[in-house]
Amino acid sequence: MRDIILLIFTALCLSAALRHPFVGLLTWAWFTLMTPHQAAYGVFGIPLNVIIAGVTIASYIVSREFTKFRFDPITTLIIIFAGWLTVAQYFSLAPESSAVYHDRFIKTLLFIVLCAQMTIDKLRFNALVWTTVVSIGFLAAKGAAFTVLTLGQYRVQGLTNTILEDNNHFGIAVATILPLIFYLRDEAARPIVRHGLLALFAMAVIAIIGTQSRGAFISLVVFGGFFWLRSKHKFTIAAGLALLMVPTIAFMPSKWTERMATIGEATQDASFMGRVDAWVINYKLAKENPLTGAGLRNSYEKEIAAAVDPERAERAKAAHSIYFEVLGGSGFVGLAIYLALLATAYFSAWGISLKRKDPKLAPWKWRFAYYAQISMVVFGIGGASTSMEMWDGYLVIIALIAALTRLVYPAQKKTGHALAKIRARSWQPPDTLKSSNSL
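and the corresponding C-alpha cells:
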C-alpha cells in the first residue's frame, strides 16, 4: 500500500514540476534527505531519485529559469570544488574504486547548486527549509519514540542503506537541523505550528541521546553552548535545555552513562584510535600526492593504505572525518577549496546576522543567518569524527546561505555602461551623444 501511495504522490509532484521546476527540486530534496523509497518494498529497485532529478533539470532548462543563473562566492566555490574532484578522479590511484564516490559527490553538488540558484524568494526559501526539517525531523521523531518504548536499551539509527544508517551520522544530522527548527518556529504565525515545532525539537534531542553516539552528544552540547553564548536570554535557554536533557539522560540506562564517560578517555579507546590511524593514513596519502590525493575514499583500500603505512592499515577503516576524507581523496588543494567553501558560508551568514539592526533588512533574513551559523558550527565539529562530507543536509544549508546572500545583496544593474562603450569608440564629441537611457 505504501508503494502505491508513494508512486501516486511522486507522480503528482512530477506533474507539477513540469510547470513549476521548484516543485521538482523540493521532491528531489525530500528523496535525498529522507529517502522514502528506502522504506517501501515494491519500488525499492526503481530509480525514482534519478527520474525526479531528470524531470527537474529538464523543466528548469525548458522554463528558461536557468537564464537567471548568477555566480556568487559560494556557488563559485562549489563549482570549483566539483571541478577539482574531477581532476582528483582523473589522477586517482584506483579509479574503479573511487569512481562511485566521485559520481555520487558530483551529483550531490549539482543538486546543491540548483538549490542555491532556484531559491529566489522567501516562499521558495522557507519551503526548502521546511522540506529539510520535516525530512530529518520525521526520522528523529521515530527515533525518539523508539528510545522511549525500548527504555533506551538500543541505539537509534537511520534508514538502512542510506548515509544516515549509522547512529553517529544520524545523531549529528539531527543535531545539525536543531537551529533550523528554531528558525521555523520564529517564522510560524500559528500557535499550533509553534508548539508542534517545539515538540519536534524535544523529540530531536531525545533521538540524539538515544543514538548513544558520543560524537552526536558532543554536537548536542556544542549546539547548546553556542546557542547559549549567542543568545540574550541565557537563563531561559539554560533552564529549558536542562529541563529537557536532565530527565532524558536520567532515563537512559547505565551503559549510556558509561559510554559517554569515555569521551574524556579517547586515547584509551580502540575505536577512537582506529580513527586516528585512518587520519594518519589519509594525511600520508595526501603527502605522497599533495595536489590531487589518492582519489575519494581510496584510503579504504588495504593495498593503497598499506603502501604508506603497513602497520596502521591493519587497524584503520573509514577516515571518520569530513576533513581527512577530503584531504586523502583530493589532496591539500581539494581540502583548501573545501575549507574555503565552509568558511565562506559561515562568514556570509555571520555578516548578514550583523545587519539585524538595518531597517531595510527583513527580520527573517538575519534570523536564518543567525541560526545557519549555529548549524555550520555544529556540523563542522560533529563532522570531524564522521564520514559525512557527501551528506546533502549540511550542503543544503550552505545552498540556502548562498541564496540568502543574493536576496540580501541583489545584483545591481549597471547604468551607463553602453554609453561608455559608444563614447570610447565614437569620433563624435561626448556632448553630441545621447544618454544611455535612450539606447
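(Above: one complete record from the training split.) The chain is about 70% helix and 0% strand.
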